[in-house]
Amino acid sequence: VSFLLLLSTGATKDMGKMLGGEEEKDPDAQKKEEERQEALRQQEEERKAKYARMEAERENIRQGIRDKYGIKKKEEKEAEAAAAMEQASEGSLTRPKKAVPTGCGDEEEEESIVDTVMKFIPAPLMDMFNKK
């Protein structure tokens, strides 16, 4: 019987809230909310610290593998490439020139290409080219 009485008392309070009645104000509600927020912040900090430790351990393992096999980190490769570019352009007032791909801009190569094509032209057509 006391169980039903407790159930009906809680149900009437909830019904009152649902019907637009006023909620009972908990005097410690703000204090509880602040404690809850602080607990969430603390959990978040602990989680971040945990993952930072895990990442540090992973990085140590990665570095051991790099040392064992002589592999360089991406940042080190990029730094070396930048240093090489700076060293190559030292003393120059302009930016470094880009390498010209083969087959582009060389007149000697173009002549050799024409000669190569001429080898495959039949003799009667070759005579026509030579008459000009």
TrEMBL record:
GO CC terms: cytosol; perikaryon; SNARE complex; terminal bouton
UniProt similarity note: Belongs to the complexin/synaphin family.
One GO process term, biological-process aspect: synaptic vesicle exocytosis
Keywords on record: Coiled coil, Cytoplasm, Exocytosis, Neurotransmitter transport, Synapse, Transport
Entry coiled-coil feature ranges: none
One of the record's GO molecular function terms: syntaxin binding
Subunit structure: Binds to the SNARE core complex containing SNAP25, VAMP2 and STX1A.
Location of region: Disordered: 1-57, 76-111
Compartment(s) where it occurs, according to its Swiss-Prot or TrEMBL record: Cytoplasm, Cytosol; Perikaryon; Presynapse
Bias type Basic and acidic residues, positions: 14-57
Protein name as catalogued: Complexin-1
